[in-house]
Specification:
Blueprint: E1 3-7, E2 12-17, E3 23-29, H1 38-48, E4 56-60, H2 70-87, E5 93-95, H3 97-105, H4 116-123, H5 130-145, H6 153-162
Parallel strand pairs: 1-4, 4-5
Antiparallel strand pairs: 1-2, 2-3
Helix pairs in contact: 1-2, 3-5, 3-6
C-alpha cells in the first residue's frame, strides 16, 4: 500500500510514501503547455500515471476564501485532477487547507513559511517547494488515516474530523 498527497496548483505537489513512510516520489508536476485548459489536462494525466489502484490518496481541498487572478486557475486544476481520479476509479479524501496546516503544526492558520520547520522536526522532510511540502503532509495524513504512523493529539483531532 502507498500513501499519496496531491496539492493542486500550476506546479502541483505530488508525494508518494511507502508503508514504512519512506518517500518514493516527491516532485512538482507541471505542464510544458501553458495554454488552458490543456495545461490542466496535462497535469491531471501526469498525476494519474503515477498512481496505483490500492493507493490511499489525499488531495488538498479548495481555499474558498481566497481571492485574486490565480484562484480560477487553482480551481480548474483541482477539478480536473479530481475528475481524472474519478474517471480512473481512484477514491480520494479531500482535506481542507486548514487541516493540512493543523496536522503539520498544530495550528490551522499557519503561513506556508511557518510550516517548513514543523515538517522538518516531525518527519525530517525538506523541500524548496511549498506545494511539495503540502503534498508530503497530505501523504502523512493518508498514512494516519490507516493508523500507520504515531500521531500527536492535534493530528488525531484532524483525522477525527476527516472521519479517519
Amino acid at each position: 500500500m502507498r500513501y499519496v498527497g496531491i496539492d493542486p496548483s500550476t506546479k502541483t505537489g505530488l508525494v508518494i510514501l511507502n508503508n514504512k513512510g519512506d518517500v518514493l516520489l516527491n516532485k512538482e508536476v507541471k505542464s510544458a503547455i501553458e495554454t488552458d485548459p490543456q495545461r490542466f489536462i496535462n497535469i491531471a494525466l501526469s498525476i494519474t500515471l503515477e498512481l496505483r489502484k490500492d493507493d490511499i490518496i489525499c488531495i488538498e481541498g479548495f481555499s474558498y476564501g481566497s481571492k485574486g487572478r490565480g484562484v480560477s486557475t487553482q480551481y480548474g486544476i483541482g477539478w480536473m485532477i479530481r475528475a481524472e481520479l474519478i474517471k480512473h476509479g481512484y477514491k480520494y479524501h479531500d482535506i481542507s487547507p486548514s487541516a493540512v496546516k493543523k496536522f503539520a503544526t498544530g495550528k490551522g492558520n499557519t503561513s506556508k513559511d511557518g510550516m517548513v520547520l514543523p515538517i522538518y522536526k516531525h518527519w525530517g522532510f525538506e523541500s524548496d517547494s511549498d506545494n511539495v511540502r503540502d503534498a508530503f503532509v497530505l501523504a502523512k495524513i493518508a498514512q494516519g488515516l490507516k493508523g500507520i504512523s504515531p500521531l500527536t493529539k492535534y493530528q488525531s483531532e484532524v483525522l477525527d474530523k476527516i472521519g479517519g
